[in-house]
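Comment thread on ticket #2218

A.B. wrote:
> Attaching the input chain for the structure job we discussed in standup.
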Amino acid sequence: MRAVVWWFDSILGGQDYQRYVAHLRRNHPDRPIPTERQYWRDRHAEADRSPTNRCC
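C.D. wrote:
> Ran it. Output below, let me know if you need it in another format.
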């Protein structure tokens, strides 16, 4: 069951914010880290501005 939950979480982007924070800390330590809420707002706004690679 845990594997199924992990799979759905990865499909839906559940770990994206954590990966983004790790990327910022590793490659851009001087940049501020956005809150998770702000990260998702920015991500959805960018998807609306540039609707490439979307299924629907």
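A.B. wrote:
> Thanks. Noting for the ticket: The CA atoms of residues 7 and 13 lie 10 Å apart.
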